[in-house]
Design a protein that fits this description.
Layout: E1 2-5, E2 12-15, H1 33-36, E3 44-48, E4 51-59, E5 74-76, E6 79-83, E7 86-92, H2 106-123, E8 131-138, E9 150-156, H3 161-177, H4 181-192, E10 196-199, E11 203-206, E12 217-221, H5 228-233, H6 239-253, E13 259-264, H7 282-285, E14 289-294, H8 315-324, H9 331-341
Antiparallel strand pairs: 1-2, 1-6, 3-4, 4-7, 5-6, 7-9, 8-9, 8-13, 10-11, 11-12, 12-14, 13-14
Helix pairs in contact: 2-6
Length: about 350
Amino acid sequence: MELRKDPITRSWVLIGDDDAGATTNPACPYCLPSEISPVLQPILALPLEGTPGGIRVYSHPHPLYRIEGAADRRADGIYDRMRSLGAHEVIVESADHEYTLPGAAPGHVAAVLRCWAMRIADLKNDLRFRYVTVYRNRGELAGQQIRHPHSELTATTFIPRRIVYELRAAREFYQLKERCVFCDIQQQEEQQGLRVVDSTPRFVAVCPFASRVPFEVWILPRYHHSSFETDLLRHPDQAELAGILQRTLARLEQLTQDYHLVLHTSPNTNARTELGKYWTTIDDDYHWHIEILPITEKRSKSYSIKEVYYCSLTPEEAAAKLRDIPGLVSARRQATLDLKSR
């Protein structure tokens, strides 16, 4: 596996054999790791009262990025290539194979969020890594490979192209208006109310104005902060964020079981970077947020240019429909979860 850079779009592409298929082992190593796989040692174990196994973090069994060595960036004529240096981790959110984020106790989900923040903060101490984030692919259509409930973390020696676009747009908006573009988006969405799905005193969930897919939702803080991990680690209680995330996913999962969830946070400002000019105002112009892209259509219209998206449902209609869906797991499903916890 290696990384190659497109000289036109400047995006890095993983090239090589992908052996990260779903495991065929009938015994899940993440349910009872101490008995089934005694050599599987967690990078981090976060105990939770009343929850056997707590939350655990492991190296990915088939990593896209490997932490050992150097990037070995080199030229190939006009092209650039380098090793897929980085980190790829599995965050096992519960030892329960039937666990779901919407159906978990809010305190459990808050602990999952803290675990995300702890791992991002720790990996940002490695100055080789320019970007660290967490994502959650749920369902076969989203490419879920490990069947046990989990999220994943990657640390890379480059900044993903979409984040570069966000950084550039946020910086240019701030230079023009001396305001954060995400703060302005949040305020306008709440004033208009057309695309708001849910809100709390500190967070809001909205269907973005230019949604890429039907029922796309962003969760943003209603206050300004550029760094997810710094923000969360300064607050001991994240039940409010856990609650709005759970309600949002509960609504979406009544429409589809497949989605991509991606955390957008600030890059590692201590790392060596080709985008140094952005670092002077990043604390003022960037705003962390969570993006959720449901997969509701197996086939949809598309254009020959991949970056031009087609969304068959307006975000205003999507938000209205989501508001009408209860942000709770079904009574039957909750009863099943209650029985499991006894």
